[in-house]
Structures are given as structure tokens and as C-alpha cells.
Specification:
This protein is an alpha/beta fold. It is about 25% helix and about 30% strand. A seven-stranded mixed β-sheet has the order 1-7-6-2-5-4-3. The longest helix is centred in the first third of the chain and has 11 residues, at about 10-20. The chain is globular, with a radius of gyration of 14 Å.
């Protein structure tokens, strides 16, 4: 899947991406600073019915949200500030990725070796002032 979209259409793209990601428990989103990774993850969380405040976990590393009607959590993970695989493991990143819940991960290219084989890798790029490209990397 490759789609170009304006930021005003992020909710539509979130819905399409979630449909494409059926069967995956980890969605890894790479892209430059300010490309809209957190914005897209927020839209996907809203599409899942999450009503919690959704924010970038740059400083907390992991934000956990509850999906209504489900006992499993949704994790929003940001690897940007981490310096090593050991630091990611100590922060609990692997626990989230392998526990059966849904995980959205920003900056996955920092530690690709920690991801399960069944990870959906996506790349976001800026193609205009308010235009983005989402590409699923198979």
C-alpha cells in the first residue's frame, strides 16, 4: 500500500492502515521528525475507540492506552531517545512488543533487531507542505 494524503485526511488513512494491518500486533512507523508519526498513531487510536489523552511518548518511552471493551492494552512506543538495545529492553519495550497487545512504534529503525517477525513496517515521508506519503514496506 502506498498512499499520499493531506493531513486533513489522516483519519481516512488511519482507517485504511488499520484494515491493512489486520493480523499484525506491531506497527512500526519510521519517518523524519515532524512527518506526522504521532498524528497518524493518534488517528489510529481514535479509530480503535480509545478516548484517553494520546500524546507522544518521547520522554516516557511507552504510553499505554485501554481499548474499550478489551482487556489488552494498546502501546505507543517512541525509541527516539534510547541509545541502545539494552536500554530499550530495560524500558520494557520488548515486553510490549511480545505480549500479544497492539503496539505502535516510532523510530523502529534504531533497533530493528528487537521486533518480532510479524511486524508491519511503514514509512512516512513529506512530499509537500501538507502532503505526506505512507508506504508499507514488505
Amino acid at each position: 500500500m502506498v498512499v499520499e494524503f493531506s493531513l486533513e485526511k489522516v483519519n481516512d488513512v488511519a482507517k485504511r492502515l488499520l484494515a491493512q494491518a489486520a493480523g499484525y500486533q506491531v506497527l512500526a512507523l519510521q519517518g523524519s521528525m515532524g512527518v506526522g508519526k504521532t498524528t497518524l498513531i493518534t488517528a489510529m487510536c481514535r479509530e480503535l475507540g480509545i478516548t484517553d489523552t494520546i500524546s507522544s511518548p518521547t520522554f516516557s518511552i511507552i504510553n499505554e492506552y485501554q481499548k474499550p471493551g478489551s482487556s489488552s492494552a494498546v502501546y505507543h512506543i517512541d525509541l527516539y531517545r534510547l541509545q541502545s538495545k539494552a536500554e530499550a529492553v530495560n524500558a520494557g519495550v520488548e515486553d510490549c512488543l511480545y505480549n500479544g497487545g497492539l503496539s505502535f512504534v516510532e523510530w523502529p529503525e534504531k533497533f530493528p533487531e528487537i521486533f518480532p517477525p510479524q511486524t508491519l513496517h511503514c514509512k512516512l515521508t513529506i512530499v509537500g507542505e501538507s502532503l505526506r506519503r505512507l508506504e508499507i514496506i514488505l
